[in-house]
Amino acid sequence: MRRRVDICSLVSGAAIAALGVLLWLAAEGSIDLDFPDLVPAVLAAAGAALLTSGLRREDRD
Hints:
The chain is mainly α.
């Protein structure tokens, strides 16, 4: 039996991982990331999670 992929969890995890990479690169000094630059990235990650949770359709058989 195959399990269905939870797309909401997948997108949320990828967004959190992307934020982690941004913070890691900023801490390393590879990129210059200030608070005003980080806010849109956090909002985009939250928006992606909310969008996929809203688009998720549960089968009700």
